[in-house]
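Fig. S4 source data, part A: sequence.
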Amino acid sequence: MPKVEIYTKSWCPHSARAKEHLDFKGVRYEEIDVTTDSFRELEMVNRSGRHTVPQIFIDDHHVGGNDDLLAAEASGSLDQLLYKREQGEAA
């Protein structure tokens, strides 16, 4: 399973929905709460180019926010990112 990171803020409903979706899929992730951590928030902005949360990364690939996560799910590209190693190993 690839490394999944999600930058969040504790009060953000979009962050909560993104985490719920990842939990539903059984995806393990590292949550980086930037609610009161300006250093980590700056890190998020530098990595993503965005100031909003959540920001989701899969193996350093920037997925984007919650809407982007759901669009990736709908298109099938989320599963490709999450399971690419397993598919490569099975081949």
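Fig. S4 source data, part B ends here. The CA atoms of residues 35 and 84 lie 32 Å apart.
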